Amino acid sequence: MTSRVGMTLGVPIFVCGELARGDDAAGFAAVELLPADLRERVEVVPVGQLDILFLMDLPADAPCIVVDAVAGLQPGEVWVRPLAALVDRARALQAAGCAPEPRSSHELPLEQVLDLAATLRDAPPAGTFVGIGGACFDVGAPLTPSVAAALPELVAAIVEEVAALTFTEAVRC
Amino acid sequence: MSHATASATGGDERVYEVHELTRVEGEGSLRLRVKDGEVVEARLGIFEAPRYFEQLVVGRTPDEVIDMVARICGICPVAYQMSAVHGFEDLFGVRIDPQSRALRRLLYCGEWIESHALHIYLLHAPDFLGYESGIAMAADHRPLVEQALKMKKAGNHLIKILGGRPIHPVSVRVGGWSRAPRVSELKEHRAALEEGLAFALETVKVVVGFTMPAFAREPRVVSLRHAAEYPFSDGRIVSSDGVDLRPSAWRDAFEEFQVEGSNALHARSLDGKGVYLLGPAARVVLAGEQLHPLAREALAASGYAELIRTNIYASIVARAVELVHAFAEAIDIIDAYQVPAEPLVAWQSRPGVAAWATEAPRGLLFHRYEVDESGRIRTAQIVPPTSQNQAAIEADLVIAAKQVLDLPHAEATHRLEQMIRSYDPCISCATHFLDLRIEEV
After folding, report:
1. What is the CATH number assigned to the segment(s) A2-42+49-171?
2. pTM for the full predicted model
3. Who among A104, A105, A119 is closest to B135 (CB)?
4. Which of B145, B149, B428 minimises the CB distance to A53?
5. Rounded CA gap, B191 and B197, in Å?
């Protein structure tokens, strides 16, 4: 028989984006709406841009959640992927010679940060990316209506991933 | 990989172009045109949008300015704070506690550590080791990249202890600090700095092992120099040919000017000699005798003291030597640290000109503010090192061009990029300027 055993692990939620840039603030808005009891099981870390050092500080196999707005999806579309899948994508793009080029020395694209962490740790970071499609990233703009309306769905996705990552399957005889 | 157009245009004309330079901070481009073996155009294009900081600070108070100018750069915010705060304190006649002064040097050590470690390993080393990025290099040189990240983390953490956060610190104030750290906070970080010092000493050996492309010129170098310490925030502005000024008097010898097609001002000396070089190589040449003994020893053992002056590619060695210095001085400061008796001394504003130059990781950074009767900023001028180095970069492109003409186009273009990266240009810093004029119709 299998049962779920709760373990308080303090899963870090790395919140990416920029508060003052329209839908790029979606991640910050979502973590404000997390249920109080869930906050005891997570550590919300507003990072803006995910730095490799955050991932290098994680113990081996310790999971994390990365939340960010995403350009290219339908506005308000919630998109959940294992971080390992993003590493695979980064490597595929690199192999095809069409990896996105960082335009700043301290702003590597998220997938490349994850790729670097995977290289240095011998394995992709454990955990999940939870994204939401954005429509407007202009300075000073508010969340667009479609993204604001989808915030409950984004919160639910984060809650679900936290639940999945903070409970382990234990086998009982 | 860069977007590059490197083409033979027919006849005796060749054009080397990189539309978006990578592994530099900010958005810039390279264009070099050679006709009949002569360079007819050598341009570091800077197209990143202007950021108007010199207008944003108008009407603000000195303490507000210190926090605002830190936002010019995510890599060297401390430099912006230091040039500003020293300028204001000079104008207002503020004498800070000696331990507060030591903490400011410690803060600068943190910034040099994180900036130099990032540049040496993740931005510049891939050129020497034949990789297109730090990520690609990590697969084959994992210990080097791990070492770099540990050093960068040690520098960032030092800034966090002193400034409240690792980037854009917030505790520097006119008169000292809004909060001075406890002795125990600094001591707890000592072991990481000791480990970093060992990595830094190893770094000098690593970069000395790189093959330096041939390059030779006799540059005019400019930096701060101090009689008793390696230059961070005090000393005099000196050059290899006799300039000797107070840190407030940069405008007595230099000026900024607009260049068509660039969103960053250039700079030149008023004596008509024009081009000059700033940065780690300039500091090592002009102030090398004040390096920490461990750094001086590492420099001597490297055998690069002369090459650092004449070969721009060897600036990576100067940067590594300064990495040693920053770690070693940081440890010394922590060992001698006592909480300042008066972390924040009282001061009074007075109208006038607040001006000062300090040494950012990339070189001399000059600020000048006119302060009005109400203690607010009337005008501002910020002259970052990358603006000042642009002319030197373009002059070096001309020299480098002659040395790459026989190489295949792609390799030649890469070599030119490598040369630009030797300057560690921070284009985002360089585009803070431009007069903002709004005409109401």
Report:
1. 3.40.50.1450
2. 0.88
3. A119
4. B149
5. 10
